[in-house]
Design a protein that fits this description.
The chain is elongated. α1 packs across α5. By secondary structure, it is an alpha+beta fold. The strands form 2 sheets. A 3-stranded antiparallel sheet has the order 2-1-5, with helices on both faces. It has a two-stranded antiparallel ribbon with strand order 3-4.
Amino acid sequence: MAQIDFREFHRDIDMLTENILVDTAEAMIRYIESSDVIPVDTHNLKDSAGVGVYRSGTLKKFVMPRKAEEPRIINWVAIWGEDMIDHVLNTGMSNYGNGDHIVLFTAMPYAEEVDSSGRNSGFFTDMLSTEFELILDEIVKLYGRKS
């Protein structure tokens, strides 16, 4: 009986999985970048939003292009959103060391407060999470079509 070598099949599935994760992350960033769903004061909240693709502890990082021209001042400390997301994405490597993960982050210390109250209530937990799921579904459908 002939023995089947599944190594190439496994490589193909692995590459397909990574392509789906990366395409979804890139689409989510395009959505965040092109939309006004994130409130803008200094642009630091938007700059601190990002998507990390973790594969067995390896990070593929997607950071919003820097738009902020001034830092957000919190307790007399200048905080840049871009610096915050770099830190969080790198910290995530220890949290997502096994398996495949795609994670939507926002790293500014006041993001939770903005999300939980006021006129922008729920834009991270509801609006962006919902859009994230819709984008993932669309990407998976694209890969599921036969040529």
